[in-house]
Amino acid sequence: MGTLDGIEIFTSTVTAGSFASAARRLGVTPSAVSRRVAQLEEELGVQLLARTTRTLRLTDDGRAFYDRCLRIIEELGEARAAIARSGGKPSGTLRVDAPVALGRKRIASELPRFLDRYPDIRLDITFRDQLVDPIAEGLDLVIRIGALADSTLVARRLGESRIVHCASPPYLRKRGMPKTPRDLQKHACIGYLSEGRPLSFRFVTDEDIAVVDIQGPCNANDVDLMLTMALAGKGIAGIFDFVAHEHLERGTLVEVLADHPGAVWPIHALYPKNRHLLPKVSAFLDFVASVLRAPESTVSRGTSRRGRR
């Protein structure tokens, strides 16, 4: 792998547009710059720059390498600044990825407050449900819901979410209120699709986890669509409490089997080992943890308005 000085000279050359301009910026000769870039290409085994007598142009390999180099240099600068400041203000670009429903329902509305608190941070955030590799995608951290797979990433638990089983008042007037998890086998249920099949409903009991296979008119891999179907009276859905709580408070949804709580899903932040030293990452982790700890309503704590229909 190329040494750091070679990477810095290469990025300076691309930014400046020529060996001569890069040399003036770096205080060395153009031949020294050209020679060091050539050494870097030899070390990597690929051509980074296509050279003519008048211009320099990035090759495809050079473009990919250049994009990664910019992130390396940015992180190096932030690491140096973090050590120099020793607890100074978080700053720099922060790249985050979070699940769609959690991002929209809990995190998005709080982000202006985070940016007000840390004006030197520029936040690049995406909402996706699929698993992503933060190292490969240049992310500082990802937030995920559910059990963790084995990984070399550092994990920090931020909170948890309970699955709430709920239906619309018109559906319950028509089909009745289930008394036990087993009664769900006689009801229309809206399941979350995973690997082509709806996930079973799971309930926490004093002794174990009760698992109920379900069937109904619609299954989906999108929580908002499941919510829409439940609100339309198409069945009983098992959805995260942060998705359901607003509708439970309004009475447009009613929690069923409140005495048999749904399974609890942990929420973690995952990040490469080198990221936890950066003030910007620590600031965001603390902020999101405080957001997820804050109770949304008494509904998400198991006091749904079962009497409202």
Automatic annotation (TrEMBL):
InterPro entries found in the cross-reference section: LysR-type_TF_proteobact-type, LysR_HTH_N, LysR_subst-bd, WH-like_DNA-bd_sf, WH_DNA-bd_sf
Has the keyword Repeat been applied to this entry?
no
Taxonomic lineage of this organism?
Answer: Bacteria, Pseudomonadati, Myxococcota, Polyangia, Polyangiales
Alphabetically sorted, this entry's keywords are: DNA-binding, Transcription, Transcription regulation
Q: Which PANTHER family match?
A: HTH-TYPE TRANSCRIPTIONAL ACTIVATOR TTDR-RELATED (PTHR30537:SF5), HTH-TYPE TRANSCRIPTIONAL REGULATOR (PTHR30537)
UniProt-recorded name of the protein:
Transcriptional regulator, LysR family
**Domain HTH lysR-type, which positions?**
1-59
Tell me the superkingdom of the source.
Answer: Bacteria
Tell me which family the UniProt entry assigns to this protein: Belongs to the LysR transcriptional regulatory family.
SUPFAM superfamilies reported for this sequence: Periplasmic binding protein-like II, Winged helix' DNA-binding domain
A molecular function GO annotation: DNA-binding transcription factor activity
